[in-house]
Amino acid sequence: LEKNKRFKVIYTRKTDTFIELIDRAAIANKADANLFVSVHCDSHSSSAYGAGTFVLGLHATKRNLELAKKENSVIYLEENYEEKYEGFDPNKPESLIGIEIMAEEYLDQSILLADLIQKNFTNKLKRKDRSVKQAGFWVLHNTYMPSVLVETGFLTNKIEGAYLNSKKGQDQMATAITEAIVNYEQRLASNTVTSETPDVTKVNENNSDIAVDNNATEKEETSDVVFKIQISASSRKLPLKAYNFKGLKDISVAKNGNLYRYFYSETSNYEKAKKFKAEAMEHGYNSAFVVAFKNGEKVPLSTVLKSNSN
Q1: Residue among 144, 170, 160 at smallest CA distance from 49
Q2: Domains detected in the chain
Q3: Tell me: the pLDDT tens digits for 161-171?
């Protein structure tokens, strides 16, 4: 990835030196990074094997809870951890429940990258698919950018451990992650993230109902394409008031499974949509992007733009 001039790689560490969780997130935040990727190897008392990728979210299963507790437990190796992490206790479920998606506008991008990484692991390298999941990892909670945590496999599995410790295995896994990052960046550049966001545990996209604040002006449905600016995605339903959206008005919401997607403004003109996107970014939604709807259904932006150019 360092050979690609489009990327600047910043490491939290290059040697086997312990870096506190709070510092790992701080390194990424201080660099104003566009992406955070945390790479791990897993372990288990059984002969479990396979690769999985996580994005931030409440633990959906007992396995995710136990994994989050294990990853977060390195906090105990740090001095004054109670003060640094403000009472966060990795062993208490209520601490994990208290983890909310602070940078919720980054969830779509995080899921997209996680899915690309996972597909490379399973389709190209034929690793066992442990899928894309959500879990309450502290290091993902405190990074202010799209973030994923990659579990490359289990060192405790004899066969998989040998693979992960081999130069071939390390090169293949690193290449799979690198290619996914490059693909991710290309998709963001072409603004296609919304049309290809995959399913993930607790993030299902089966519905496309658009709900508007009862106090807002009703908008007539039209067969024409409408562009909206997605500014955030959340597991919580928020009142569509300006104070909840950094002062922005004209907010609508679409519920997709357990996820609420919030949109700013709408227009049938793509050039105006780009201006609305710029306004959203000026209000602090740095990862805002344009979404296209036709007859109330979300459609791929790339398809709409291609159709308009013909």
Answers
A1: 160
A2: 21-195 (3.40.630.40), 204-309 (3.30.70.1070)
A3: 999 999 999 99
